[in-house]
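Hey Z.,

So I finally got round to the phosphoenolpyruvate thing we talked about over coffee. Here's the setup:
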Amino acid sequence: TNARTPLIAGNWKMNLDHNEAIHTVQKLAWALKDAQHDYNAVEATVLVPFTDIRSVQTLVDSDKLGITYGAQDLSAQVSGAYTGEISPVFLSRLGVKYVAVGHSERRQYHGEDDALVNAKTKNALAHDIAPIVCVGEPLEVRKAGDQVPFTLAQVDGAFADISAEDAVKVVVAYEPVWAIGTGEVATPADAQEVAQAIRARLAELYSQDVADAVRVLYGGSVKSSSIKELMNEADVDGALVGGASLDPEEFAKIVHYQD
Ligand code: PEP
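And the result:
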């Protein structure tokens, strides 16, 4: 038993334009309404492309939908000569609640390292956006059995110089790289091993109270068929869902996993 509200976050990646976004969010809201979903019991959010945010905001606000929304990245800067970057100021003005930071695809294709992930995490927190910090090992590290030390080094990097007051607002997503987009979901025991280690590290870095407050998600090929077992694990507080979040009926089933 714990006081952490489960969070199911859909990561659309570079999919769905602003018109498709409206249809997808409408269908998701209808599916959750049909299921009489209690948003206070399980929070549902969608991390959408920047160009979708305004459309999603208008829909969520005008129809008073229970879901929230967020972005997939942000700048480490606040304003100025940073062509193509998106400021957390802009995001918070659009009602963004969450932002993914350091997703493995950004670490891999955009060279994001722990120092940049730390700077982006701080920038989100400074503008009242909850960072969803993504960590997790590649296949060769898992094969060597080093998933825990590898992932904890990323946790240390992300939380560097962040106060306890801010740390409780961070969400950590454990996403083993070999499980992302591969159809190969981690076993619940594998997810729990690393989620528990992350929480123990937060207790060392801060306190047991902070560790007990931070939500740790699992991500990597989650589907409606695998979510329930993952959520049974003591330290898994939700999921970051890529591919399966593009299908609103399937994503609604994942959000409403308790039934
Ligand atoms: C992700 O992009 O964070 C992810 C977990 O993707 P998928 O669910 O498709 O593996």
